[in-house]
Write a structure and sequence with these properties.
Helices cover about 35% and strands about 20% of the residues. By secondary structure, it is an alpha/beta fold. Helix 3 crosses helix 8. It starts with a strand and ends with a helix.
Length: about 300
């Protein structure tokens, strides 16, 4: 079982180093995208091995914009250009595994043929995946200039909150059903190659998502939801604790206490009960939490 971990990171090289160490093993490769707003040298000085690649194509990442999708696409391309992987696993630099590297490999070997990405058909109010993700038009551009980004925020507010302009997504997506779900996934090499082929053949669809709202939660989901891979889809493998906010809670020892005596860690999602192998997100100083995982869970 050869695996490629695709990691989106922007801070805390020390935690990233621990994350990679916990997941490292035979036939395991790491492809890392560092947000172009950040200096990459602290990451490269701490993390170096022949199975670790910092990809050259770096995007300026902003929440809710296509830049996250583009970084993920570049990670997939980098991995598949190196070799054929049985699974590509997308995680963030602030994640950490709840199980050890061999357990994760054994799990994916047993479940081979499944695609782990949580998705639902839009609209799905219970999962808070509404039409706004497809009807809104969001101006997006790769600039860190504060003035330009301020102008962009004002224009997006006027377009969507004052004028309430809505676009007809069918002009771009045609007969594709809209899907949305979680950002993180573990997909087979075949599914990832299908995504790259789809992107090459459907530039109009890509252009639509370049101005969509939170496209990292709908781009890959819509592509796979309208493919033969749909019948293989299972919930994703990442545990996240959400309150009523745009960002997940930090993982704490208290939050993980219920996992302490569980050989198999399950969690309930909109797609049903399923096993989780990773957790996000971890605070910059999470040494105590990591020790708890290693001593009582992993």
């Amino acid at each position: 079982m050869n695996l490629a971990y695709l990691i989106l990171a922007h801070n805390n090289p020390s935690h990233l180093q621990k994350l990679i160490k916990a997941l490292d093993g035979a036939d395991t490769h790491f492809f890392i995208h560092i947000d172009a707003k950040q200096d990459i040298s602290p990451f490269q000085s701490k993390i170096s091995n022949e199975n670790i690649s910092f990809i050259k194509e770096r995007s300026i990442i902003f929440w809710g914009e296509f830049s996250i999708v583009q970084a993920t696409i570049d990670l997939i391309k980098a991995a598949l250009s190196k070799q054929k992987f049985e699974y590509l696993i997308l995680i963030s630099g602030s994640d950490y595994p709840l199980k050890n590297a061999q357990y994760i490999k054994d799990f994916l070997q047993r479940k081979k043929g499944s695609e782990f990405i949580t998705l639902v058909e839009v609209p799905h109010e219970e999962y808070r995946k509404g039409w706004d993700r497809f009807h809104q038009y969001r101006i997006s551009f790769p600039s860190n200039n504060k003035i330009l980004r301020g102008v962009k925020r004002v224009l997006n507010f006027v377009i969507n909150n004052v004028l309430h302009w809505q676009r007809n997504y069918k002009k771009s997506l045609g007969d594709l059903k809209p899907y949305a779900g979680g950002q993180w996934w573990a997909l087979s090499g075949d599914a990832c190659q299908y995504i790259l082929d789809f992107i090459e053949k459907n530039p109009k669809v890509v252009r639509f998502f370049q101005t969509a709202f939170i496209p990292d939660e709908s781009f890959f989901q819509t592509i796979l939801g309208n493919s033969s891979f749909m019948s293989r889809i299972k919930p994703n493998l990442t545990f996240t604790k959400w309150d009523d906010s745009e960002h997940p809670n930090y993982i704490t020892v208290e939050l993980l206490q219920s996992f302490k005596f569980e050989d198999v860690i399950n969690r309930q999602s909109i797609s049903g009960c399923s096993e989780v192998l990773f957790a996000r997100k971890f605070a910059p100083d999470s040494e105590e939490v990591i020790k708890f995982i290693e001593n009582h869970i992993a």
